[in-house]
Specification:
By secondary structure, the protein is an alpha+beta fold. The chain is built from three helices and four strands. Keywords: Membrane, Transmembrane, Transmembrane helix.
Length: 108
């Protein structure tokens, strides 16, 4: 209990980080004293925002990659189909026949 007493005593002050003042040309930036808990809260908020931004950017890049993959796949499929349609004649008798049942195709 004696170790925790300084934190509860009225004379204890929270440590702070001081930012020195700078002068750029004629504009001077005043010095501020930021308490450590405010500094840590700001770092935590920035960290959370960066994590969220990373997740959204990662999801966006994955979505773009998926779209590009599907686009290139459809282009190659259309080239493939057009090549084979030009090579083999279409059987007009099989165009109106229904597809076989799924169980039948699974056995084959």
């Amino acid at each position: 209990m004696q170790i925790l007493m300084p934190y509860f005593s009225p004379s204890y002050s929270i440590p702070s980080y001081s930012i020195p003042s700078y002068s750029i040309s004629s504009y001077s930036i005043p010095s501020y004293s930021i308490p450590s808990y405010t500094y840590l809260c700001l770092l935590l908020i920035i960290d959370i925002l960066l994590i969220l931004a990373y997740k959204y950017i990662n999801a966006l890049l994955a979505e773009i990659g998926q779209l590009l993959f599907c686009w290139t796949k459809s282009i190659t499929f259309s080239i493939h189909c057009s090549f084979f349609q030009s090579q083999t004649p279409i059987d007009q008798n099989n165009l109106n026949k229904p597809d076989p049942p799924i169980a039948y195709t699974m056995l084959i």
